Amino acid sequence: MKYYCIGIKGSGMSTLACILHDLGNNVSGYDDARGYKFTEEGLKERNIEIFYDEHEIDKDTIVTYSKAFSTNHKEIKRVRDLGLTVKDYNQVVGEVTSLFDTISVCGTHGKTTTSLLLSNIINNTIGCNYFVGDGSGYANKKNKIFVIESDEFNKHFLAYYPRTAIVTNIELDHTECYDGLEDIINTFEIFSNKAENVIACGDDKNIRNIKFNNNIIYYGFNEDNDWTVKNVVLNNKGSKFDVYNKNEYFDTYEIPLFGKHMVLNALSAIIASTLYGVDKESIKKYLLSFNGAKRRFKIETINGYTLIDDYAHHPTEISVTIDAARQKYPDKEIIAIFLPNTYSRTEALLDDFIESLSKADKAYIMDIHCDRELQSDYPNASSDKIIEKVRNSEKISIETVDKLLKHKHGVLCFMSCANIYEILNTFKKIIS
Q1: Would you state the pLDDT for residue 293?
Q2: Which of 81, 282, 109 is nearest to 184 (CA)?
Q3: Per-residue pLDDT reduced to its tens digit, 391-427
Q4: What is the DSSP string of 176-232?
Q5: Which of 75, 171, 357, 365 is the residue whose CA sits 20 to 30 A from 208?
Q6: Over the range 369-396, which residues count as b (16 or more CB within 10 Å of their CB) and which as e?
Q7: What sign has the CA pseudo-torsion 288, 289, 294, 298?
Q8: How far apart, in Å, are the Cα atoms of 99 and each of 162, 253, 327?
Q9: pLDDT tens-digit profile of 67-122?
């Protein structure tokens, strides 16, 4: 079949394009962004063509598009005028999940890392396809298992067909498409109950409010879970911990990752791998060899400056990123450089952003970035509101990035799900 992906450089769409290609389809796409994005690496490896202007499209092509693109976008209007079949992004993804024994990893935080941890274990042992939102994707028709990061944005994941669901946590987010926390919890409940097995973090009070109608396995630090971790050791090399199943010692594991949240992510991957028959030693081996996700706590040192690039865009994610930086670099100043994304999230979680960014020794905050909302609809949303309340913080932009030069011996954490890499790359050029 032929697929045309509009917004192909988006993290989800680029991965979908790679999966469709690997399954034997002819894939091409369109994007407005002509500049390089980290998500296009897989597309280039597969020689998937990316168009930026109008071009011919075969009549038998199926079109799907990123929800970041308005339905009034010129390219979406053009393909409809051509009479082509247009399917929602999540519908196409759902069709792919129905072909395999699918393990869906969902939750407000930790989806990407957990998906990659799990796929690293299973792909190197019994084999699996995987679809991860950092632009990592691979498929082979011979594989029976499919590991997929399942995003709750716009309730996309309700179109998926999981056999097993991992639920990492549930918090208020995506306030532009959910009517509050109760609506989010209810949506996760509907999704989880589509699966035969659920592996869920029992430490999360919102998850505990879900009524599961299937085989439920709870995990976490607390003793009331089915699987627990104990004797956690966090140091500047990573994390080590003991795992217990029904209060019986299971094994000891090490991961080259930082922060207690990463221990929980690893635990859920251990449980799922065990459920699918992977032996203990293999799990140990491929947890320890894990290299991390793209744009998740990526460390680079240039001429004495320590830079961390992280996808953190929610207050909880900012908080754990700063904690992880302190674990890795306990004796260094921690500097946060944050680009807020969407006016609705910034407005709804303002107090939480203030609290999380206050954990840094110094915070630099950019103006809010948003592609899908109008600032006029959120007159109270402003980066200045954060700066007013966060001690030792100030505004920064690409034009004023040289402010960071004074922090040569600190750790600079660049955080956002938006194009924070633009200011990061500009700073790299200065210090190089």
Answers
A1: 62
A2: 109
A3: 999 999 999 999 999 999 999 999 998 889 899 999 9
A4: TTSSSHHHHHHHHHHHHTTSSEEEEETT-HHHHTS---SEEEEEESSTTSSEEEEEE
A5: 357
A6: bbeebeeeebeebbbebbbeebeebeeb
A7: positive
A8: 10, 33, 42
A9: 778 889 999 999 999 999 999 999 999 999 999 999 999 999 999 999 999 999 99
Residue 404 DSSP class: G
Judge whether 395 and 364 are in contact, CB under 8 Å.
yes
Take residue 46 and report the two structure tokens written for it: 């597969």
CB-CB contact of 184 with 152 (8 Å): yes
Element at 119 (helix H, strand E)? helix 111-123
Separation between Cα atoms, residue 122 and residue 301, nearest integer Å: 32
Residue 164: strand, helix, or coil: strand
Q: Encode pLDDT of 224-248 as tens digits.
A: 999 999 999 999 889 999 999 999 9
Token pair of 194 as six digits: 């589509």
In the structure encoding, which two tokens stand for residue 90, read together? 């999540």
Which residue, chain included where needed, has tokens 């056999």? 163
pTM here is: 0.82
3-state DSSP helix/strand/coil percent for the chain, to nearest 5?
35, 25, 40
pLDDT digits (tens, 9 = 90+) for 77-91: 999 999 999 999 999
Residue 60: helix, strand or coil by DSSP? coil
Both tokens assigned to 78:
């053009």
Alpha-carbon distance of 221 to 427, in angstroms, equals 39
Buried-exposed string 207-223: b where 16+ CB fall within 10 A, e elsewhere: beebebeeebbbbbbee
Question: Can you tell me whether residue 387 is helix, strand or coil?
Answer: helix
Q: Which of 369, 361, 425, 366 is nearest to 394 (CA)?
A: 366
